[in-house]
Design goal:
With 217 residues, this protein is of the alpha/beta class. It has a single domain, classed as Vaccinia Virus protein VP39 (Rossmann fold, 3-Layer(aba) Sandwich). Helix content is 34%, strand content 22%. The chain contains eight helices and seven strands. The chain is globular, with a radius of gyration of 16 Å. The protein starts with 7 loop residues before the first helix and ends with a helix.
Length: 217
């Protein structure tokens, strides 16, 4: 995502919802939860990878749905997003949590020591063209050796917002590999259904930061 002008997400989101897109986004999930739908699949998945009281960076946190849930499960969570309108909704919902306006392609050097970085909600394909290597490198630098970078995003137009271009798993894996992240497992969704091959329409990828030999000794 880019901090200069409107982001790809903002261009996609405002096409239908207009200037109230952030409130509309949060309201959609609130209504789904009120109707009895499980809207916490991402947080449940992520919590299953974590030990008690883990540190999590919710990268591209939006209105904070995943971060708030993980915090409620006892984890220390920081939410970052380049979109201040989305962050305003998150801050109003959970003022006690840490929310920071950050470009994922330029993560600040003080965002380090996390056990897991989460990129849910189609964050990866919503990154600006050409920024995937910087995003992956920032995520790798934010986690401890052996820490996880977990991403979930659509692989075709049917699983992406209108107007969002497709980012292939090959592109994302290459950016992660260059950043020292090794693919540990891939799933077809946040319910732990294992994906057979790329092209199922959606994929959740669990990458791990490689541990250097000097760090193992």
């Amino acid at each position: 995502m880019s901090a200069a002008g409107s982001t790809r997400w903002q261009r996609v989101a405002t096409e239908d919802a207009g200037p109230s897109y952030a409130e509309a986004y949060a309201q959609r999930f609130a209504e789904a939860e009120a109707a009895g739908d499980d809207v916490h699949g991402e947080a449940t998945f992520l919590a299953g990878l974590l030990g008690p009281g883990s540190r999590v960076l919710d990268a591209g946190c939006g209105t904070g749905r995943v971060a708030v849930r993980l915090a409620g499960l006892g984890h220390e969570v920081v939410g970052v997003d380049v979109d201040e309108a989305m962050l305003d909704v998150a801050r109003a919902a959970a003022p006690a949590l840490t929310w920071r306006g950050v470009d994922l392609a330029a993560l600040p050097a003080d965002l380090v020591g996390f056990d897991l970085v989460a990129l849910a909600g189609n964050v990866v394909p919503l990154c600006e063209t050409g920024t995937l290597p910087a995003v992956a490198a920032g995520c790798a630098g934010a986690v401890v050796p052996g820490g996880l970078v977990v991403s979930g995003f659509g692989l075709d137009a049917d699983h992406l917002p209108d107007g969002c271009p497709v980012t292939s798993l090959t592109e994302w894996d290459a950016a992660c590999a260059a950043a020292g992240l090794v693919l540990r497992q891939r799933y077809a969704g946040w319910d732990h259904a294992t994906a057979g091959v790329p092209g199922d329409g959606y994929a959740v990828s669990v990458h791990v930061r490689a541990v250097a030999s000097e760090e193992r000794s």
